[in-house]
Amino acid sequence: MGGRALAEVYDRSRISELFEAYARQIDALELEALAEVFTPDCRVSYGEVELDGLDALLGFLRKTMPRFAATSHHITNLQVRRPASDEARVESYIQAWHRYRAERPDLIMHGRYSSRAVRTPDGWRIAEHRGRLAETDRSASPLQDGPDLPPRDAEPAAS
């Protein structure tokens, strides 16, 4: 394998690791670590929710994720296309399980991500990330505003 082919294999591995880190960090609520996954000026879309910039993404996740007692995001079937040496298009599948803190049935979503990764001085980062829901086991959008809930590690209120 020549140097160019080896570099492409390395880049594909680093790009795949971005999506692995994204899923792990969301599930662990290590949201600040997403600065090592996304560019500061990223554009992220979860269905009808459009977010411009890392700060907007982090704000949205800080507000949305505490309503879940636990989550498990699985990103698979990554297809990495390299239109340029410093840019890649990535298509992937997502399955995400969410257990609500409130008495509600669990939410399971299936869909696809279409993303654009770019090489930065700090390594590969996601610049665009668009989620498209294929199906869910609930009719209401899981990302619509709901009641503000305490963080996952907070003690439940006494009844």
Short précis:
By secondary structure, this protein is α+β, with helices and mostly antiparallel strands. The chain is built from 2 helices and 6 strands; from the N terminus they run αββαββββ.
Query: For the residues shown, what is the average pLDDT?
Result: 87
Q: Structural class given helices, strands, pairing?
A: alpha+beta
Total beta strand runs: 6
Question: Please, how many helices?
Answer: 2
Q: Judging by the overall fold, what is the CATH architecture?
A: Roll
> Radius of gyration, rounded?
17 Å
- Structural domains: how many: 1
**What are the low-pLDDT stretches, counting only 5+ consecutive residues below 50?**
144-152, 154-159
Give me the strand/helix succession.
HEEHEEEE
Provide the CATH top-level class. Alpha Beta
Strand content: over 45%
Secondary structure: helix percent: 10-25%
Instruction: Please describe the biggest sheet, giving its number of strands, its sense, and whether it closes into a barrel.
Output: 6 strands, mixed
Q: Biggest sheet, strands in spatial order?
A: 2-1-6-5-4-3
Terminal Cα separation, in Å? 65 Å
CATH topology heading: Nuclear Transport Factor 2, Chain: A
Overall geometry comes to globular
